[in-house]
């Protein structure tokens, strides 16, 4: 069980993100990241020297060069020497590592950030490098084609249809109308089939962006934030690598992560789901047992903005921000990585009683 004991409570105390755009070719990763880091530190009054641990999430494949994350440390400031780590994953997994660091008492504060520039190359081709290198990757099925296989499996099982998928996409982007950071806001045409049965509107926008959060433990969190978003549980699980041995209409790893994080102990009022494709929200709602009374993706979700390697961390940040603002009391945040919801992380956040 990975639920935090009450004597070592850990909370998200600050969250910041970029305005996500189709391209930011005039900016380097460091230039894109620095304003976010400054904003999240300024909101707490902390300086880099006050941070006990720093962890980042990004992908060298997107940047097209090895150890690209070391350049991003220029934005953090690595002198005097800092305690720092990196995951070649979405920033949600960097947050998990930072949570573990605070959980063990090695630090009281942590800075977690993630960034991705998808605009320079073909994301659909880059993501094929996640696939099984012997049987699947040589066939070059891209991320949209694999998501379409999952969508068709859901339709064949009677779990959804194309109009229902269009309604999912429409609801998410309508919700994003009030999110100034979203790349797509308001009514967006479904368009033509990109890979049947998925239309353009069922797929995430390609864009660049970054995000950062600050974690703090115990009374330190209360000093830094009027209403901390306490992480009551967090867990991540993975499906089999071989797509042929999985039921693509279900996500047992999401269900198990949610169970281990304590999501089913009491109802949640908000859920931020990292569902890049409309069909994946159908799978996640079922796995997480979310009813119609739960406010799903009030930020617009990944269908409104999907900076790769930061979108999952943004789900945690958006859920935490609603608790900070008093708009939620108990929220669920989900992050995914890999084809067809292969890897899944679930966090449960709560605010103190008002």
Helix residue percentage: 25-40%
Q: Give the N-terminus to C-terminus distance in angstroms.
A: 28 Å
Spatial shape: globular
What Rg, in angstroms, do the CA atoms define?
19 Å
The ordered string of helix (H) and strand (E) elements is: EHEHHEHEHHHEEEHEHEHEHEE
Strand order of the largest sheet: 3-2-4-7-1-8-12-11-9-10
What structural category arises from helix and sheet content?
Answer: alpha/beta
Mean of residue pLDDT values: 93
Number of strands: 12
Weakly predicted, low-confidence segments = none
SS field, number of helical segments? 11
Largest sheet, in brief, is: 10 strands, mixed
- What percentage of amino acids are in beta strands? 15-25%
List the helices and strands and how they pair.
Blueprint: E1 10-17, H1 29-44, E2 53-57, H2 60-63, H3 69-76, E3 84-87, H4 91-103, E4 109-117, H5 123-126, H6 143-156, H7 162-175, E5 193-195, E6 198-199, E7 208-217, H8 218-224, E8 229-238, H9 252-261, E9 270-272, H10 278-288, E10 295-296, H11 311-324, E11 330-337, E12 343-350
Parallel strand pairs: 2-3, 2-4, 9-10, 9-11
Antiparallel strand pairs: 1-7, 1-8, 4-7, 5-6, 8-12, 11-12
Structural account:
The protein is of the alpha/beta class and 354 residues long. 32% of the residues lie in helices and 20% in strands. The chain is built from 11 helices and 12 strands. Strands 3-2-4-7-1-8-12-11-9-10 form a 10-stranded mixed β-sheet. α4 (91-103) crosses α11 (311-324). The longest helix is centred in the first third of the chain and has 16 residues, at 29-44. The model has no long low-confidence stretch (mean pLDDT 93).
